[in-house]
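mind reviewing these tokens:
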Amino acid sequence: MLKKNRGVSLVELVVVIVIVGVLVGVSSMYIVETINLWQFLTYRHEVVAQGRGALMRMIREMRQIAPPVSAANSASLGFNYTDASGTTAVTYQLSGTNLMRNSDILAANVNSLNFTYMDSASSILATPVALPEQIYRIKVALGISSGGQSNTLESQVFPRNY
């Protein structure tokens, strides 16, 4: 009497390998999408955190502006500010893709920096350095990007000493 072999044929083995391969391929698409979403959110958080930190420091110092304003145009702002430690000269400007505070980098990967100066009637001042006492409000727009993600943050400040 011959015993029947209970093994797996080569055809059955190939079919199982193909089915498992298809299942792994389909499930890997979902894993890749999850990783891409995580990277997107991480870069987005990095952009917002860096921009928000830079903008908050600028606003805090701009609130303490003390006359005279040395430079005021749409791309830069130079002024003295007074705090508990005394008076400090500060200039904010864009250098390449770096937001500079004097000679220090305040934020990197900055696309745009725009200052808008307004008087008490919310009219835009064309030459704020000529009449710095008319500056009632300063709007700041900061465009920043990282890893293909970009964001524009805006804020405004009412200088206390004007």
